[in-house]
Amino acid sequence: MTIYTAGKTVVALLYPLLKAVQVYDIKNDVVINSAKKFVEFIEDLFSTISSLEFVRYRDYIFFNKQRLKYEIDSYANLTFLNNQLKNLRIKSITFLPGINQQELIDFADILIKDKVTFLKHFVLKRYPHINVQFLKAHEEADELAENGEAAKKTYFKALKVTKNLMQNLWTGRPVDVKSSRRIVYSLVDSISRDEFGILALTTIKNFDEYTFNHSLNVGILALALGQRIGLDRKSLARLGTSGILHDIGKVEIPKELINKTQKLTDQEWETLKLHSNFGVREILKTRGLDEISMVAIAVAYQHHWNFDGTGYPLREKDEEPTLFARIVRICDSYDAMTTARAYQPVPYLPHFALRVIWSNQNRLFDPVLSKVFTQLLGIYPVGSCLELNTGEIGLVMRQNPSTIDLPIVKIIVDKNKKKVDGKTLDLGMETVIKIVRPTYPQIHGVNPAAYFL
Ligand SMILES: [Fe+2]
Ligand SMILES: [Fe+2]
């Protein structure tokens, strides 16, 4: 057996064990059997190899120095392991000869926990046959910076594609939805590498080019939500495309109406609502009509359908929106609420918009998806500004998987109200520094998006 196949097999055996300890008690047979299979296999390997080392580097997993490729049969295993090691800031794990079932189960049990719990147990309990190396602070910072750069490139490329697509439809030029496929897959990859990197960019809310930014932001939020509920890559690509195209029908609505600052008349409101119907026609106009387009048509038509049966366009009593339409319904509302618009000059603070979604589950939004969405964005979504008890203002950079009310923030305004390029704090690890309240960035003269660019 080659090193490569051995590595793939070890990961394939580790995955069910980690999944099992997530669901069952560690004394359960499912756990014990998966651990047994794992130990039996590696005991065999130890007759030819002296140690089994997994290294994580830039979202790749190396086994005894060989990079394991993300293939169809190993995609789920590797993604899971990669994400887990990333969350725990682990650089490498080495299994040594002599490891037994119990040591492995105990270790698997903490490997699925959050960073704080993992560290606590790893130090307390001895693992004589397992070595773990953690990322050094500078390695972690490098990795985040690289992911951030890649996410930015993808975001702006996607924005360009979105813009082209809509402008072509506006001017009646032929559009090929397939041409946007590559960029949608780049978005999918970006989300699966580091969901916060690209989610942070949805804080870019360009007032003048609202429709383009909004369309893309909805696509990205939908992808992040889709990934959380476990959709595969192909489904994610369809969901992303549908998210981007959800408001495409607006190209048929007069621009004066879309940009109107005063309250809309009843008549104007009825016209605006037609964008759901027009969306179907616009997508039908595109070339390369295939399954993606069919899914997108349903989303364009149903994205203002509420969970309780209300909404527009009118529907038959027993007609239900598709899963994708229910996802887009939430992401669309969230992005619209958090964006300044002509008729909404002061947008909702992100945490408040989330509260609106939470309190309207069952009525407007699918309750299960609302919960996952809130979990995904945390109590204080990336890009929120928080006033701290030190008098400083912290910008939420990422969520803490373990403590969703204590995110990782960067100090951007000091206690003298001066804008600074301050340090990054993990509020989950701080004992003295506390959040006082979320605050509007505009009050402090800062633009959250600028810090992610
Ligand atoms: Fe809409
Ligand atoms: Fe929308």
Any chance you could write out the topology, listing elements then pairs?
Blueprint: H1 3-23, H2 29-45, E1 52-57, E2 60-63, E3 66-68, H3 75-87, E4 90-95, H4 101-111, H5 115-124, E5 130-134, H6 137-170, H7 181-193, H8 195-199, H9 210-228, H10 233-245, H11 255-258, H12 266-273, H13 275-285, H14 291-302, H15 323-337, H16 350-359, H17 367-377, E6 385-388, E7 393-398, E8 408-413, E9 424-426, E10 435-439, H18 448-451
Antiparallel strand pairs: 1-2, 1-4, 2-3, 4-5, 6-7, 6-10, 7-8, 8-9
Helix pairs in contact: 1-2, 1-3, 1-4, 2-4, 6-7, 6-9, 7-9, 7-10, 9-10, 9-15, 10-14, 13-14, 14-15, 15-16, 16-17
The structure holds fe (ii) ion (2 copies).
Question: If you had to describe this structure to a student in words, what would you say it looks like?
Answer:
- The protein has 453 residues and is of the alpha+beta class.
- The protein has three domains: 3-135, no CATH class; 139-377, Hypothetical protein af1432 (Orthogonal Bundle); 385-451, no CATH class.
- Helix content is 51%, strand content 11%.
- It has helices at 3-23, 29-45, 75-87, 101-111, 115-124, 137-170, 181-193, 195-199, 210-228, 233-245, 255-258, 266-273, 275-285, 291-302, 323-337, 350-359, 367-377, 448-451, and strands spanning 52-57, 60-63, 66-68, 90-95, 130-134, 385-388, 393-398, 408-413, 424-426, 435-439.
- A five-stranded antiparallel beta sheet has the order 3-2-1-4-5. It has a five-stranded antiparallel beta sheet with strand order 9-8-7-6-10, with no helix packed on it.
- β6 and β7 (393-398) form a beta hairpin.
- α10 crosses α14 (291-302) and α15 (323-337) crosses α16.
- The radius of gyration is 24 Å and the shape is globular.
- The chain starts with a helix and ends with a helix.
